């Protein structure tokens, strides 16, 4: 594996919000000189392994090593699947006996699709990903759009703002639940694509980088930074 899972780290006012917590999260944090002890809160966009399986390690480490419950921010309709179908099998029982999600995390459901973290205003929006699954993207301070996992979005194709976009970009020729590079080129006008950086691209990136840089705004490289405000 050349690249770690697609997770973001928001840093504001000296605090850090980890957006998605996939199973490679500790390697990703290590590569930027951080550990789970440096994370102030976690936000989850959906329950797939590459976005949520790192929560098992985060929950155990913060509870038993760091002695705290880390805030876990998520849309309410993600909660049932996150515990009952994703984490309960490995975290439901421990040396303390039977557990709930709240024993490991300070669970903070998003209200009205908006929340604030360290002076940054965040807004969630539903994405077009796995049918029947609650999946969301994020908008940061109305300046940066993060789709997480998603097919192309009709409203984004009509967006005429200057907002930068971090967009799911599968490098397969066809994918039922991720936007392919070809779909991005077809679905979005040049005025949108020139603001769009590809994420979730996979280990064959270099074979496609030239086309991405010609047709999109470029690649959100692993470990890269975006500043605003």
From TrEMBL:
Domain Metallo-beta-lactamase, chain residue ranges per copy: 4-200
GO molecular function ontology, one term from the record: hydrolase activity
Domain of life: Bacteria
Pfam families: Anti-Pycsar_Apyc1
Matches recorded under PANTHER family: HYDROLASE C777.06C-RELATED, HYDROLASE C777.06C-RELATED-RELATED
Name of the protein in its database record: Metallo-beta-lactamase domain-containing protein
UniProt organism field: Acidihalobacter yilgarnensis
Source organism phylogeny: Bacteria, Pseudomonadati, Pseudomonadota, Gammaproteobacteria, Chromatiales
